[in-house]
Amino acid sequence: MKQETPDLEGVWSEYRASLTAFLRSKISNRDDVDDLLQEILLKTHKSIGRLDKAESLKSWLFQISNNTIIDFYRSKGRSDAVIPEDLWYENRDYDDTHVLEGCVAPFIEALPAEMRRLLTRVDLQDTSQKDYAEELGISYSTLKSQVQASRRYLHKLFNDCCDFSLDAQGNIADYHRKPNGCDGC
């Protein structure tokens, strides 16, 4: 028995960021990624009614994405000429990274005072955790636990503000501010 067709808007809302990160890991040009994302949305819209199992939705979407990437490269054809703009290292866009760098200081300022002092010394001023623990007169393992807790809290502040997509190396591939997110950066 065929299940109810998933809501396209809900599906797209849930998987768009992951699909974007996947595309960016395979395609260097941001405009091409946006075009392919639209193409995937259209393909999803046309064929979502034929999806038999809602459990296979994610793998189905990524299969559509993978096939779209293959079609993209086939359409470009094989050429011996290397075009510098097509090389990923020539066309890397660092704008998102630089935009987010400006968010670090306001988020650290939003931390409770002890967490703020701790992360400032350890992460921003590159003081070793061992040296800082000695300076404070506490055990190294206690300081490590405090650093981890502070980083988790900072991570929560970022995630309360924006949705992030990470690439295979754990770097930020894309982000979107949440509707009721922050205006701190």
Please report the number of helical segments. Answer: 7
Uncertain parts: 87-95
Radius of gyration: 22 Å
User: Which of globular, elongated, flat, extended, rod-shaped describes the shape?
Assistant: elongated
User: Strand portion, in percent?
Assistant: 5-15%
**Major sheet:** 2 strands, antiparallel
Mean pLDDT score:
79
SSE order? HHHHHHHEE
**Helicity, in percent?**
55-70%
**Total strand segments:** 2
Structural class: mainly alpha
Strand order of the largest sheet: 1-2
Report the end-to-end length measured between terminal Cα atoms: 50 Å
Structure commentary:
This protein has 185 residues and is mainly alpha-helical. Helices cover 62% and strands 6% of the residues. It has 7 helices and 2 strands. The chain has helices spanning 8-26, 30-47, 57-76, 95-109, 113-124, 129-136, 140-161; strands at residues 162-166, 172-177. It has a two-stranded antiparallel ribbon. Helix 2 packs across helix 3 and helix 5 crosses helix 7 (140-161). The longest helix has 22 residues, at 140-161. The chain starts with 7 loop residues before the first helix and ends in an 8-residue tail after the last strand.
